[in-house]
Each structure stands twice: as structure tokens, then as C-alpha cells.
Specification:
30% of the residues lie in helices and 25% in strands. Strand 12 and strand 13 form a beta hairpin. Helix 2 packs antiparallel against helix 4.
Length: 383
């Protein structure tokens, strides 16, 4: 039976966790919104963030990730050339009236050039050329996108095309888009830098990068998206003072609203949320009662640092408790795991770390155990 010990006076721990007051609770006009801490992958804020949504051109993050992965595996080379089909030109080029790299039939761009067209120019033609050239059809390529997404833990993903153009059932959650951003940054730093290039040209056709966060302090990626059905969306990431945060918004009413809300959410991501490390040497935990031991209590401590992320306003309301694995009974050796320290912040899942015995407690002899058991019986203490 697990034993729970509230730490009502855990001043040593809470003094580490408490942050300055006055942080505002976040709200946003976005239909879907997420803030993620990059180091931990923790979702710090989520408004309908787990709900599958239409990602529009933010889909292209997965298109690029799949190609990066194939290059890494040796299935492709960045210098490989693919031929632009009439279908790719018609559905994704100038005739389509959608975002385009400006390709024309029989062009033979390299994989690297096509990826620049996808990432910077948001070219639907570039996506289709990659899909057709790699998998034979866009449908087959989209299935491979979904398969890889699921392998990487992006369980909400269901891709039906490589472009993000409207297709019933083509969805992914905002939280999974944030995780995809983390995967891209961590797995392919050499290619992630392409996301912050200001513009790209294919022959005489030049398109600027559409990410409105570029130029904002520390921002270096990733991707915008827009469809009538989805509204205006953005996945963005930035580093400030060595800390990286990623935001996702979707369902904004205009480009201007997307830009201003994206910048505001990024600012709040750094100003209103914190990531704190609680070191074992900085935490004093109460001694725990021991049954049938030569000592009545045993000192305990954190076995490892705890990493806790949350809204600053929630830290001063943090709840802490010791959850014992079972009632402690001698003998206990120094270093034995005896339970967990659990910290809960409002609106967050509990975070825990193991606690260990800081001393050895030997078992009582027969008469000592008998007296201890009798004392417990008289006092009515069942442990």
C-alpha cells in the first residue's frame, strides 16, 4: 500500500519554486494554441492543442522532415535531380493559383533546391515533385509521411497529401506540430537553418520567407499555413538566453493577426513560463517513520534533480508530497529507494522523482519487535 505524506511545510522546496507574482494567465484568440519548452518537450500551454486540426502549409514541415530522414538513411542525396511533371505544374505551379516555387514541366531541380522551395517559398509544386519522384504518387508519399509521424510519436497525424492543400481528414494536432518542430531542430540542425533564410530564388522567380517571426528576437523558424477552412496558422521557434521555446497557433483571422499574435505568444512563452531544476542538495525532506527498526525514523533525500516547467503564476501554489512505495519496514539500507517526491502545479500533470534512504536502519531483535508491535496495537497506529 502506497503511503502519502503531504509536505505542508516544504519551505525549502517551495522557496526554490516560487516565482515573482503578477504573471498573467494566458488567453488567445487563436482556435488552437500551444507553447512548448524545447529542452523537456513539455507542453506548457495548450488551447485545444491535442485536438486534430487542419494544418494547411504547416504540413510541409513533415514533407521536409521525411526527405531529411531519407537523405540521412542514404535513400536519397541532396544532389539527386527530379523531373517536374505536368501534373505537379498544373496542381502546384502558377496555373494552380496557390503558393508555388515557379517550376515548369521538365525542369530538373535537385532535392536540395526543392527543399528550399518547400521550406522558404512554401511551393506546392516542389512538394508534389518530391512526392511523385520519391514514392511514385503523392498518395503513396503521404502514407509514408503518416507512417513516419506515428513512428516518431505524432499519433494525431493523418496526412493525405504533401502540400497541406485542403483534403477531408488531413489533420494533425497543434501539440504534435510543436513536437515535429522539436524533432526537426534536434534531428537535423544542419537543415533546420534553412528555415530562417530570408528569401529564395528559382531562376528569376524570388519569394520571401513568409514567417512573420523572423526578425523577432531569437526567432529562427519554422512555417506558416493558411486555408479558408483553417484560418491563418504559424509554428515558430526562438532561443533567448540559451532557452528555446516553440509556439503553434492556428485559426487566426488574417495575416496581420497571425503575425501580432505569434509575436505575443512567443513573448509570453519566455516571460510567463519557467523551467526550474530542483537539485537534491537544495531540498530538505522530512524524516520518514520506520517500523520494526532500531531507529524510529530514517532521513530521506531526492535521488536526482527534478526538472519542473510551468506558468510562473502556478509556482507559488505548487503542491508537494512524499509518496512512499510502501510502509517502511526495517531493515533499510542507505541508498534504498523508498518512494517518490511528487510536485503538482495547477494545470499541469504531476512531476515526480525518486527519494532514497540517507541512512541504514537495522531490524529490531525479537523482543524489540514484540514491544514495537504491542505499542502499535495499543496506540491503534496501523502504519
Amino acid at each position: 500500500m502506497k503511503r502519502r505524506t503531504p509536505i505542508l511545510a516544504a519551505a525549502a522546496l517551495l522557496s526554490i519554486l516560487i516565482s515573482p507574482a503578477g504573471a498573467q494567465i494566458i488567453d488567445t484568440p487563436a482556435q488552437h494554441a500551444v507553447i512548448m519548452d524545447h529542452t523537456t518537450g513539455e507542453i506548457l500551454y495548450s488551447k485545444d492543442g491535442a485536438q486534430p486540426m487542419i494544418p494547411a502549409s504547416m504540413t510541409k514541415m513533415m514533407t521536409a522532415y521525411l526527405v531529411f530522414d531519407m537523405v540521412k538513411r542514404g535513400e536519397l542525396k541532396m544532389t539527386d535531380r527530379l523531373t517536374v511533371s505536368a501534373d505537379a505544374w498544373r496542381r502546384g505551379g502558377f496555373p494552380s493559383g496557390t503558393s508555388t516555387m515557379g517550376l515548369v514541366p521538365k525542369d530538373t531541380p535537385t532535392i536540395e533546391e526543392l527543399l528550399h522551395g518547400v521550406i522558404i517559398m512554401s511551393g506546392n509544386d516542389a512538394c508534389i515533385v518530391l512526392a511523385e519522384g520519391i514514392s511514385g504518387s503523392e498518395e503513396a508519399f503521404a502514407k509514408r509521411m503518416t507512417q513516419l509521424a506515428h513512428e516518431k510519436g505524432l499519433s494525431s497525424a493523418n496526412f493525405l497529401n504533401s502540400t497541406g492543400l485542403e483534403d477531408v481528414g488531413h489533420v494533425i494536432s497543434a501539440e504534435d506540430l510543436a513536437r515535429l518542430a522539436k524533432l526537426t531542430i534536434d534531428d537535423f540542425p544542419e537543415y533546420y537553418k534553412w528555415y530562417e533564410l530570408p528569401a529564395y530564388s528559382w531562376r528569376e522567380y524570388t519569394q520571401p520567407n513568409r514567417n512573420p517571426l523572423l526578425g523577432v528576437e531569437g526567432a529562427d523558424g519554422l512555417k506558416t499555413g493558411h486555408l479558408e477552412a483553417s484560418g491563418y496558422g504559424l509554428t515558430g521557434s526562438a532561443v533567448r538566453d540559451g532557452v528555446r521555446r516553440t509556439i503553434v497557433i492556428n485559426g487566426m483571422e488574417s495575416m496581420a493577426a497571425r503575425a501580432s499574435e505569434g509575436e505575443r505568444m512567443l513573448r509570453l512563452a519566455f516571460q510567463s513560463f519557467e523551467l526550474k531544476t530542483v537539485a537534491p542538495e537544495n531540498v530538505v525532506l522530512p524524516d520518514q517513520k520506520v517500523w520494526l527498526g532500531q531507529e524510529r525514523v530514517v532521513p530521506v533525500s531526492l535521488a536526482e534533480p527534478m526538472l519542473i516547467a510551468g506558468h510562473k503564476a502556478a509556482f507559488d501554489k505548487a503542491k508537494t508530497e512524499i509518496v512512499l512505495d510502501r510502509a517502511l519496514q526495517a531493515p533499510i539500507a542507505k541508498g534504498d529507494r523508498v518512494g517518490r517526491l511528487v510536485v503538482t502545479l495547477e494545470g499541469r500533470d504531476p512531476v515526480d522523482a525518486p527519494i532514497i534512504a540517507e541512512a541504514t536502519v537495522k531490524k529490531l531483535g525479537f523482543f524489540g519487535r514484540a514491544i514495537d508491535g504491542l505499542s502499535a496495537l495499543i496506540s491503534g497506529d496501523d502504519g
